Amino acid sequence: MERELKLELLQDDVDRLIDLPLLSSCCVEPPHDDKLLSTYFDTDDLSFRRHRASLRVRQAGEHYVQTLKTGGTQHGALYEREEFESAIPGGTPDLDALREKVPEGTALGMLLRENDLAERLKPIFVTDVRRTVMLLRLPQGDEVELALDRGVIQADDATEPIRELEMEIQAGEPAHLSALALQLLDATPLRLSRVSKGDRGYALIADQANEVVRAAPLKLAQADSAEAVFQCIAQNCLAQISGNERGVVNGTHPESVHQMRVGLRRLRSALGIFEPLIACPSSLQLEVKWIADELGPARDWEVLANTTLRDAFDGTPEDLRADAVLAAAKAVAAEARQRADQAVNSARYTRLILTLSQWLGSADWRHGLDEARRTALTEPVREFALTTLRKRQRRLLKRGRGMAKIDEQWRHRARIAAKKLRYATEFFESLLPANKVSRYRRQLSRLQDDLGWRNDMAVAEGLSLRLGAERQQLAIGCGYARGYIARCVSADRESLRRLWKRFKAASLPV
């Protein structure tokens, strides 16, 4: 299993970086340079890419090494993925050697065993890199290989420069990579690298949209400690956040912003759930809130422009200037999206993710705990989970009394309570009886979705009012849109009443 942290250098500071006392004091032997020419192979229909894998043959001097890498997972700044490597005699892949390493029953194993695969393989792009390698031994005893790469990716006539720093843990704790990266960030401008060289090469030959990453199901065990469950949940949230960074930065899909925000909300909810046992530094919580707030306007304006206004103006007369209102909303949404892009691409965000990764991996919260909390962290999580669910359900039932009749302020409080209960239920679902949790979660999700839709409508109403006030020529169309929103919300009242009634009848699945 390869475990590495990848950063991009924002300036050509490789020589200065190598000479930093921080690195030179940890260096086991003098740095050395390698000339690496890597050729990536695939079929015409990109079979390996469709399996989220890459196959390359790397030449260093007279030596050839082939490597098959899986897509793996990203948790914050850290990549974890499987790789299968072997020395080969020349520059053509040796599929027999790979078949010995990759299990036959896996999707990749089946691909490698296709009879005509060797005939279909061809070179698709190359990377030409000068690599400076440093072997480090950190003060904690960890062994790290640090590689500074400068070069180019080339696919036919298309090229892209490479200026990267990779740190791979050879022995020790992965969290210490994040701590080292934070120290480097103090010395030179860096940002997170969200793609491998293989990903970047494929992007040159195929127009591929970035994947929208939703939360992966959690699988917890009854005997898991509260601390282990917290780390599992937090890493799950971080994977969702990190997985959508590329979509936010590249601006390929509005849903990327939404799912990144969902990941941040889930993380903040998890921090709230475990706060009695694990205290997250307030400075870190403020930074999580900062990036969530930076993404908010992009999501809100995109919902208004691409959903609410489109529905509101369907079939309306021309004198409303619907096209002009839509164009104005889309222009504001584009500006907000650019600000979200800049925030996620910033050194501040890089520092946040590195700090989160280091905090989660090192379990710094243990320092200064009293004996009672230390003991509670090591106990099986089930009772803590049930107590949390009961507490959050009571809060929702209290705030939601007379749901269809309460004012918007109280309904907003009920929405927050429903969202927190839903996240807690999803976190702990695998600890609950499967035959009970399905119906409960379905009723809760429907209620929370409706309350979330109402909140979107309230936000859209405010944005429409603002747009009309700032651009008087659009005031009539924006006013029409607010009337449409009011009609939709009014028509939903009976539906909300039924959803609330059904949720109250669904027992907590404990």
Automatic annotation (TrEMBL):
One of its GO terms (molecular function) is metal ion binding. Transmembrane segments: none annotated. SMART domains: CHAD (SM00880), CYTH (SM01118). SUPFAM superfamilies: CYTH-like phosphatases (SSF55154). Residues 1-208 form the CYTH domain. CDD domains: CYTH-like_Pase_CHAD. Residues 223-510 form the CHAD domain. It holds the Pfam family CHAD. This is Inorganic triphosphatase. It comes from Cupriavidus lacunae.
